[in-house]
Amino acid sequence: xxxxxxxxxxxxxxxxxxxxxxxxxxxxxxxxxxxxxxxxxxxxxxxxxxxxxxxxxxxxxxxxxxxxxxxxxxxxxxxxxxxxxxxxxxxxxxxxxxxxxxxxxxxxxxxxxxxxxxxxxxxxxxxxxxxxxxxxxxxxxxxxxxxxxxxxxxxxxxxxxxxxxxxxxxxxxxxxxxxxxxxxxxxxxxxxxxxxxxxxxxxxxxxxxxxxxxxxxxxxxxxxxxxxxxxxxxxxxxxxxxxxxxxxxxxxxxxxxxxxxxxxxxxxxxxxxxxxxxxxxxxxxxxxxxxxxxxxxxxxxxxxxxxxxxxxxxxxxxxxxxxxxxxxxxxxxxxxxxxxxxxxxxxxxxxxxxxxxxxxxxxxxxxxxxxxxxxxxxxxxxxxxxxxxxxxxxxxxxxxxxxxxxxxxxxxxxxxxxxxxxxxxxxxxxxxxxxxxxxxxxxxxxxxxxxxxxxxxxxxx
Length: 461
Prior knowledge:
Blueprint (H helix, E strand, L loop, with lengths): L2 H14 L16 H5 L7 E13 L3 E8 L2 E8 L15 E10 L7 E12 L18 H6 L1 H4 L3 H23 L3 E2 L5 E2 L11 E4 L2 E5 L4 H11 L1 E9 L12 E10 L5 H20 L2 H6 L12 E3 H12 L11 H15 L3 E5 L12 E2 L2 E5 L1 E6 L2 E8 L4 H10 L8 H8 L5 E7 H9 L20
Parallel strand pairs: 3-5, 6-10, 12-13
Antiparallel strand pairs: 1-2, 1-4, 2-3, 4-5, 7-9, 8-9, 10-11, 11-18, 13-16, 14-15, 16-17, 17-18
Helix pairs in contact: 5-7, 5-13, 9-10, 11-12
């Protein structure tokens, strides 16, 4: 057969073959959450999918509570009205249910489904290890973490991470609105951005490497490209802390902005973010706020106080001796938070002008007093959730600061090269997402607000 004829046969076969094309839509005969809560389908047949969260068998009638991503929905099982026996149903089964949608003021959301037909999509191999159907999961933190993917099926437990979603979404959306570009920086590097020994070391194809302490160097380098950048990503700290406020891997909300007039401009940007986030919680995440009984804080105005002044205020009011003039102890942070709540009814306070010896080499010193820096921490209910400030943007100043500290430039050559070729005045910050979530929802252990915590003793699940 000639090639021309063969080509014609192939072409005809392709034309005759039944072809399917995906256009980005998928039609499914399942009622949406909005339809279930609306009036259009009342007293009509609907179909709903979900996991069986709990079963309350009353004899002739049983209540089957379904768990969906939007929340819980009540279905009513009536004997002799359904295709399978109630005894065949078990918690954690995933099912597709067909029935009649009725109005029921006593049911969650004022609706319930009278079951007519059940398809079992999957069945559990063994009973649940935790009573996730209870309103509050009454078990130890260790048990929660050991069975993390199960414990998070509890309504309150998973609501914590919807709140965390809101904080991350607000961070992205607000910074996009302010002209920031989202970047993604490497988490394996030749050295840490913060210096010191608190880095996780690893072998990278027989070369020494570390896990990133922060995206700091990359953020600053990209200010010279995009002016304003941000990132959400993991941060690794090899600190031998075994406290309720520390993790060895956490999520950082970081931004860096150029052409600033003052480090207070960075504080103003964070205040704007917090205002946006709290409004988002009250509107789009009102259900989770209600479930967790969150008192959304007022962030219309956030007070700011100098580091040294804050220590004096706390010392005077609470009769506490200043033991370390160059650092804030956890107890002092707590008392500063208490002071500004009592005096100004504020859950937040910016503490500014931290001592230079407690800040990294790239922190801009205060030209009026070089013992202090143009930097800040943001405390939320007495816990530091943010560190930020203005950076040195002049190459010669950076080199001098490195030499003054007795540091070496090894491993920082490309970072420093960026400054050789001109950088605008800039600064930024890093927010600990888990700490912010913890303080907002009133937990006392940061592991409660980390999906899969990593600390000194935990590498699983």
